[in-house]
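Good morning C.,

I know you're traveling, so I'll keep this short. The sequence:
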Amino acid sequence: MIAGVILAAGASSRMGGHPKALLEYHGETFVARLVRVLSAVCDPVIVVLGYHADRIEPVVPPGAKVVTNPSPEHGQLSSLQTGLAVLPEQAEGFMFVPVDCPAAEPETIASVAAAFRSRDPRIQLVVPQYHGKHGHPVCASREIVREMLALPATAQARDVVHAHIANTLYVDVDDPGILTDIDNLERYKNLEKGVQ
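The tokens, ready to paste straight into the viewer:
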């Protein structure tokens, strides 16, 4: 079993306070699309909310598990830890993606999950890459869960990721969507125009 974790607790300050989870891509909100595509390979799919939770939760598709980060001001690591704290015991790993990275194709997500399931036991992380650039979603082992939960509030998730470069499998995908990161209005306008 692989669980899915969608990080959607941010304040969206660079988007004028409009929640990025509610932006649309191909007729779906970012959060609804990510729940749909992750659900094909992940069970459960956990959506971590924080700022704007009252606006986002009503549009989270049925079947996803919603949890709320009590301290979203502490940043993305605190949201990831909130999601990992409710991971089922039987989950052998988890796939995580920030809600502002909505464009990975379903085939890409399936490829990352398949690579994780068939990996050498020494591999702790599976990361998609497009023309040598790393993107989301990332799949990580149960061992990574323990390390992420042990991090102090001042740390960042990438501290753990970088510590496991030697135990990371990079999967080549033909999908520029893994690199999409919508953190301001200009990037969102480019996404709407089909420009990565």
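Safe travels,
E.
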